[in-house]
Specification:
By secondary structure, the protein is of the alpha+beta class. It has 9 helices and 12 strands.
């Protein structure tokens, strides 16, 4: 069963995913995003868990989270993505001491806001959608609602932190806190902040903020379920951002179709 998505959004084909990572994936921008992370970065992919689209040779692993830890440089990571042709690409917010090291030097603090974090007046709660086997579906109204909540949370966090970055994740948004001191915050402090934001009414995924879920979408990768590029946004861009029409998040295969 396919998920219901706003008009203009659709699953990317395997061929489209491959072309994106071959011709359009900006490694220079990925490197710039990761520049402040002093340590070894771990990546991960999900090949076809939600879309059920995957290369046949990965039929036993298409729904698993595949970790990319052993690589020489980002070009080698690209080569692996061309092989996997994944629906989703992530990086581990933990910063490790070196290749193969289990020593954790720190973890990025982040907030995850997705449409399922709120209740839609039309489609109901996440639980309602799960009962209809549409847990990851969302509509234009839900997206506008989560965008407004993201703007509100950004403004709230700007009173607490000096360096924030918002990323359009494909279905919702991530707010990354880049203040260096937060890298070494213990779990209890992260949890305290997450609970405070929840009490204030912000619909965040507590598991992400507390660090239980370390993986987060890699900026400039392709979200294969909606055929949109994961992109950082300024707060001014965020306030009016429309992923159905905005060309900054459209891959070339959709730009050609809408030209």
């Amino acid at each position: 069963m396919r998920y219901s998505l706003p008009e203009g959004m659709r699953y990317s084909t395997l061929a489209e995913r491959k072309r994106f990572y071959r011709d359009e994936f900006r490694l220079d921008r990925v490197a710039e995003w990761l520049r402040k992370r002093r340590g070894h970065n771990v990546f991960a992919v999900i090949i076809g868990r939600h879309t059920k689209l995957y290369p046949r040779k990965f039929s036993e692993d298409f729904s698993k989270t595949v970790i990319i830890d052993e690589y020489s440089n980002l070009e080698e990571v690209r080569s692996l993505l061309l092989e996997f042709q994944p629906e989703s690409v992530y990086y581990d917010r933990n910063i490790y001491g070196g290749k193969g090291s289990r020593k954790v030097l720190g973890q990025e603090l982040a907030f995850d806001l997705d449409p399922e974090n709120l209740t839609c007046p039309i489609h109901g709660s996440f639980e309602d959608k799960v009962r209809r086997r549409q847990g990851l579906s969302f509509c234009t109204l839900e997206f506008k609602m989560i965008r407004e909540r993201t703007v509100d949370l950004y403004e709230r966090l700007a009173k607490l932190f000096s360096e924030l970055s918002v990323v359009y994740s494909g279905r919702g948004f991530h707010i990354h806190v880049l203040d260096p001191e937060t890298l070494v915050w213990p779990r209890r402090r992260r949890r305290r902040l997450a609970l405070q934001m929840k009490r204030e009414g912000y619909p965040i995924d507590e598991w992400v903020t507390t660090g239980g879920m370390r993986l987060i979408r890699l900026p400039y990768s392709l979200h294969g379920m909606v055929s949109r590029i994961v992109v950082p946004l300024s707060i001014r861009q965020l306030e009016r951002f429309n992923p159905v029409k905005s060309r900054i998040c459209l891959p070339r295969f959709l730009k050609k179709a809408t030209a």
